Records
---
Amino acid sequence: MRIPLQITFHNIPPSDAVETKIRSLVDKLENFYNRITSCRVVVDAPHRHHRNGKLYQVRIDITLPTGEIVVKRDPPERQSHEDIYVAIRDAFDAAKRQLQDHISMLRQETKTHKEQPHGRIATLFRDEGYGFIDTSDGSEVYFHRNSLFNGDFEQLQVGDEVRFAEEEGDKGLQASTVRLIGKHHLQG
């Protein structure tokens, strides 16, 4: 970290044990992602009167070269945050999840679903159990009756619209899965 870790205790006396725990958790975050610029942790025991004692709040501000992560863990309805170490653990777990999400976005690892190609049934050879699909880019793709996913091969008609997954076969492109779709599913 370029800027040293800052730990602040609010409404509670400083604790060497708590500070040591926070430092070890920050070290784990730095080992996970070594580009953290600064980190500030505030441990607070707000002046709220609860029947079962004080509930701790933990706020973590992490600065990165590409943004900032802020975690504010208010006491939950359950009383587990009466234990300062549980409150700290929960806050750092949330910080690590946000850091993982941030890294994934940076690496563009967010999952995108590529739309399957579509086309129209061009030719059917019912007796042989196969046919060809004309694709939107003008090519022709072979498919077998066993490739049809949600329909009856005998009910297919030339001109029916389909989506398909293609793969390289022995004689060129072929559809491994063919799904019959309605006209309202296609756009453009």
---
Amino acid sequence: MSKNILICGVGGQGTVLAAKVLSQAAISGGEHVLSAETIGMAQRGGSVVSHVRIGNDVFSPLISKGQADVIIAFEAAEAVRNIEYLKEGGTVIVNNKCVQPTTASLNGKVFSAQSMTNYLKTCKTQVIVVDTDKICRELGSTKIVNMILLGAACKSGIINKDELKNAIRLLVKPDFYELNVKAVDAAD
């Protein structure tokens, strides 16, 4: 049985590394994996979307709309923007933070993470809201949001925590391994 995970955020949040770690964890667990990223204007704070598909019956790296089992959103507006990819009854793991788009700032609009998560909860889905700012403060780094959200994804059963930690060992610089594993564990 296949698993489809969509990871979304904005440039610089670590979404691409999260997709690589998730893919490696599945490969380490003996799974077949296909993945793809759409990064566009990521270096300028634009949207970043990674598709990770796990399973022997997967033949394309892109997830069709309405087929994602899980969306891991690094910020609330990106979760809303990509909700059409989630299948009915799927799970959204979302950071309780909202990055204000430049265009909204120029127009005087304010995006509220709370209104975004409230909307997500009306979409016939399980929503897991993660306070990454709190965990980052506790661990003393803002560069671990991606691993916090992957740790939260372990709760959904989409990924095995031990395989995730092994993938971190393989893909993250040794100096940062312990901090990243603490971030995974802190998401419990």
